[in-house]
Write a structure and sequence with these properties.
It comes from Mammaliicoccus sciuri. This is DUF4097 domain-containing protein. InterPro entries: Toastrack_DUF4097. The protein has about 260 residues and is mainly beta. The protein has a domain at about 1-35. About 10% of the residues lie in helices and about 55% in strands. It has one helix spanning about 1-30; strands at about 35-45, 50-65, 70-75, 80-85, 90-95, 110-115, 120-135, 140-155, 160-170, 170-175, 180-185, 190-195, 200-205, 210, 220-230, 230-235, 245, 250-255, 260.
Length: about 260
């Protein structure tokens, strides 16, 4: 009798796994094939000094272009996106249409926003709850990038007074300059490739590694590094004593759990 029960139980478990796998595969395929279309395509001739982006779930790309332009690709039944200029500020807002609890776990609640910028900005503020922020060849006097869950990736830009925050996700910069930087990631890697030399920098991570790669010799910098758990590796000869020159430019790094590497 026990043997028969075990056979029936095993057979039922196999059937459950097979049908569960098939259901997941079909649901995922339907989500991937969900209708995506251009839901916004606007150009602006107005004078624009500031850009403010506030999105719920989106991949936001900011890049240099010939004119101020905003495009968005997604499902118009899921998202409501607006874009307008007021007082020399371009405001882009994206929110989900349906705020009720949705039990469709395969719903593809995701949108892409692309903004082209032809000239320098005085202020750039981007916030998205879930998604990522990509930036290419942008100049701004003041820059704030915030993503709750997702990655921040900046290339070839000049960001003035720069702040970046990610609750869960990587923060990466490459060949990007700023006057001073404040970078925070609760869970995620922080990496600055070709980091600006002799520039004040404040980095804080709860769980995640920090790596700074300098391609030029530092002449006036002080390192202040504190970790609870993790190793520190300083590979710059001029920073072996954590200070070069007068040390006027403070590079402060705080990490609860994670390695710190200076190259």
């Amino acid at each position: 009798m026990k043997k028969l029960l075990w056979i029936l139980f095993s057979l039922g478990l196999v059937i459950f796994i097979v049908f569960g796998t098939l259901t997941f595969a079909v649901g995922k395929k339907e989500a991937d094939n969900m209708k995506r279309e251009m839901i916004l395509n606007k150009t602006y001739q107005e004078k624009i000094k500031h850009i403010n982006v506030n999105a719920s779930d989106a991949a936001v790309t900011i890049k240099k272009g010939d004119q101020f332009k905003v495009t968005s690709v997604g499902n118009k039944d899921e998202f409501d996106i607006t874009s307008k200029v007021e007082d020399e500020t371009l405001n882009v807002n994206l929110k989900e249409q349906n705020l009720m609890i949705n039990f469709n776990f395969f719903k593809n609640a995701y949108n892409e926003i692309e903004i082209t910028v032809p000239k320098n900005l005085e202020q750039l503020d981007i916030k998205t709850d879930t998604g990522k922020i990509n930036m290419h060849d942008i100049k701004s006097d003041n820059t704030s990038l915030v993503v709750d869950t997702g990655m921040i990736n900046v290339n070839g830009s000049d960001l003035g007074n720069f702040e970046a925050y990610s609750d869960t996700g990587k923060i990466l910069t490459n060949k990007t300059n700023f006057k001073n930087g404040k970078i925070q990631s609760d869970t995620g890697t922080v990496r600055l490739n070709d980091a600006p030399t002799d520039t004040p920098l404040d980095i804080e991570t709860d769980t995640g590694s920090v790596r700074l790669v300098y391609n030029k010799t530092l002449k006036n910098t002080l390192l202040d590094i504190e970790q609870d758990v993790g190793n520190t590796q300083i590979n710059r000869a001029e920073l072996k004593n954590k200070k070069v020159g007068s040390g006027d430019n403070l590079v402060k790094i705080r990490s609860d759990v994670g390695s710190v590497q200076i190259d």
